């Protein structure tokens, strides 16, 4: 992968920096030495890729599944669910061919006592931490000897030897989100701590949701491991001792789920047929009013209605001379891709001026900004697998390609801003194997401005994880010394369900911290199913909203 001709290694996969600390010595506790899932292979690959980690051993615990037993009916439904909705290509590792040739495999005693069959003994590994992937962990006394404890992702507790029920309860109940957490047991009878978590938009199938969550869990886990390797200390967490993991679903639950899954699958199939026939198009409308990012009231906004030939989304306002212009994603009913169009904002609508940028691939999110005397735009071009910045040569309709970056990346909804004299790029990258997703990760980069000739990844990328907060929903605003980032709140299985206003409270090369100060849900006008973008300029604001079908 390259940035403007310069070799660049994706930060989430490899690390080329230096560390004064010895590598973390890691063991991974599993239930079998064969049949590793894709997410486990991804994890092995990333550990081998990063010199901050030393994967000392894979520990096979014969009693790792404990007393968990799932019913034959659930096993059958889970298998069919996986075959129909969660099939994915096999993960092909980059840093090993046979995991057995890269690390030691150690079979624990039947009682899980810490004694081993063969050599070396478990104690001789001098592990810093163990990652548990099965419900039953190592003996508490041994865990207490680990400097950083025994780690487990929450879905490690939601499995039997024959099936797992990760996210089953949430999907069955129609929950707004599904959660993954990373817990640490320090042994010695102390509480289990949750040190990181993320929430994601649920999918209609529990098996598909489980596979998706596991892929995302690798990203969450690796971020926290890198943080530990860099700092030598764990993130402070909170006690999860009172949260008991759910047991396997019973027969009645499984039957209800199977019926609901059949209905959902039929509805999705019908929707896909309508889409292919050009009969299913997401229709967005725009609303505008007076106000700022902290205080705007969407209930008072005036609709700027779409037409059949011009559906507008992702609006950005730009003040030029005495006028305020609107750049937006533009498409017609039945279109398979959109282009960037521009209009002049009037008191009661938008006066269309024409296309600004067109491409053979889909364009959206026309982030337009000024730098010195230049006017630039960074539209979303994820289908081109890069970020593009365009420069205006004759405002507002003529633009030329000015710079590119993140070649080979699937990047969406990127934005640039200056903070304390430093330029920052925020982008939603999809670091994925089987499930491309731009809603779950926000990556930050220190850059040199619109030329993007210098791009330095943030030490804690991705700085935000989770589909309820990560995806950008407009430009970053600076007001009265405060930074505000609009973000999407993707929930209830709906893309673009809601809109957050996040306040960035701390930003440096080593830190990123933000908090949500308000959330807008699609209840401010009748007939809405979502709202996912905000911008403001010249005392006016604009947002988009999705119409119910």
Description:
The chain has 549 residues and is of the alpha+beta class. It contains seven helices and 32 strands. The chain has helices at residues 38-49, 72-85, 99-102, 140-143, 168-173, 206-231, 251-276, and strands at residues 2-3, 6-7, 24-30, 53-60, 104-108, 116-117, 129-132, 150-153, 178-185, 192-200, 238-239, 284-290, 302-304, 311-320, 323-331, 339-345, 350-357, 364-371, 374-380, 387-394, 398-405, 411-419, 422-429, 441-447, 455-457, 464-465, 477-479, 482-491, 494-507, 512-520, 528-537, 540-547. The protein has a nine-stranded mixed β-sheet with strand order 6-5-4-3-7-8-9-10-11. Strands 22, 23, 24, 25 and 26 form a five-stranded antiparallel β-sheet that branches. α1 runs parallel beside α6 (206-231). 44% of the residues are buried. Residues 1-16 and 111-119 have low confidence and may be disordered.
What's this model, at a glance?
The chain is built from seven helices and 32 strands.
Percent range of helical residues? 10-25%
Supply the helix-strand structural class: alpha+beta
Unreliable stretches: 1-16, 111-119
Largest sheet: 9 strands, mixed
| Order of strands, widest sheet | 6-5-4-3-7-8-9-10-11
What is the molecular shape?
globular
Instruction: Determine the strand fraction and express it as a percent band.
Output: 35-45%
Tally the helices: 7
Tally of extended strands?
Answer: 32
Q: Please tell me the overall pLDDT.
A: 91
CA radius of gyration is: 25 Å
């Amino acid at each position: 992968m390259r940035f403007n001709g310069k070799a660049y290694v994706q930060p989430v996969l490899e690390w080329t920096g230096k560390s004064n600390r010895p590598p973390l010595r890691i063991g991974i506790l599993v239930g079998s030495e064969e049949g590793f899932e894709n997410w486990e292979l991804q994890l092995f690959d990333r550990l081998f890729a990063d010199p901050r980690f030393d994967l000392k051993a894979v520990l096979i615990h014969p009693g790792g599944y404990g007393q968990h037993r799932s019913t034959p009916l659930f096993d059958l439904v889970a298998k069919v669910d996986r075959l129909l909705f969660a099939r994915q290509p096999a993960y092909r590792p980059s840093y090993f061919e046979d995991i057995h040739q890269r690390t030691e495999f150690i079979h624990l005693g039947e009682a899980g006592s810490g004694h081993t069959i063969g050599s070396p003994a478990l104690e001789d590994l001098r592990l810093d931490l163990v990652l548990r992937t099965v419900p039953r962990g190592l003996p508490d006394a041994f865990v207490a000897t680990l400097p950083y404890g025994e780690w487990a992702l929450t879905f490690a507790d939601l499995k039997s030897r024959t099936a797992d029920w990760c996210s089953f309860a949430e999907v069955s109940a129609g929950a707004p989100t599904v959660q993954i957490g990373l817990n640490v047991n320090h042994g010695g009878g102390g509480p289990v701590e949750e040190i990181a978590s993320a929430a994601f938009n649920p999918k209609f199938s529990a098996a598909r949701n489980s596979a998706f969550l596991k892929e995302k869990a690798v990203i969450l886990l690796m971020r926290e491991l890198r943080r530990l390797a860099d700092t030598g200390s764990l993130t402070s967490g909170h006690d999860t001792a009172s949260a008991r993991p759910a047991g396997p679903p019973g027969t009645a639950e499984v039957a209800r789920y199977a019926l609901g899954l059949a209905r959902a699958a039929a509805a999705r199939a019908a929707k896909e047929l309508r889409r292919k026939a050009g009969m299913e198009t997401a229709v967005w409308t725009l609303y505008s009013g007076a106000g700022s990012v902290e205080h705007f009231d969407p209930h008072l906004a005036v609709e700027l209605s779409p037409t059949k030939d011009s559906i507008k989304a992702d609006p950005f306002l730009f003040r030029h001379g005495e006028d305020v212009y609107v750049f937006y994603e533009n498409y017609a009913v039945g279109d398979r891709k959109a282009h960037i169009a521009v209009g002049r904002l009037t008191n009661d609508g938008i006066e269309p001026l024409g296309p600004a940028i067109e491409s053979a691939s889909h364009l959206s999110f026309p982030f337009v900004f000024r730098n010195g005397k230049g006017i630039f735009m960074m539209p979303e071009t994820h289908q081109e697998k890069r970020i593009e910045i365009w420069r205006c040569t004759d405002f507002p309709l003529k633009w030329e390609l000015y710079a590119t970056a993140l070649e080979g990346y699937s990047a969406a909804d990127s934005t640039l801003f200056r903070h304390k004299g430093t330029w920052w790029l925020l982008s939603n990258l999809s670091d994925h194997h089987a499930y491309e997703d731009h809603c779950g990760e926000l990556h930050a980069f220190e850059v040199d401005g619109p030329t993007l000739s210098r791009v330095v990844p943030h030490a804690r990328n991705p700085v935000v994880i989770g589909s309820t907060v990560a995806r950008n929903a407009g430009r970053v605003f600076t007001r009265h010394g405060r930074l505000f980032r609009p973000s999407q709140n993707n929930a209830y299985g709906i893309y673009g369900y809601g809109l957050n206003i996040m306040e960035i409270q701390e930003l440096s090369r080593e830190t990123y911290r933000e908090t949500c100060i308000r959330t807008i849900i699609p209840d401010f006008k009748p007939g809405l199913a979502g709202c996912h973008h905000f911008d403001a300029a010249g005392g006016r604001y604009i947002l988009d909203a999705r119409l119910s079908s």
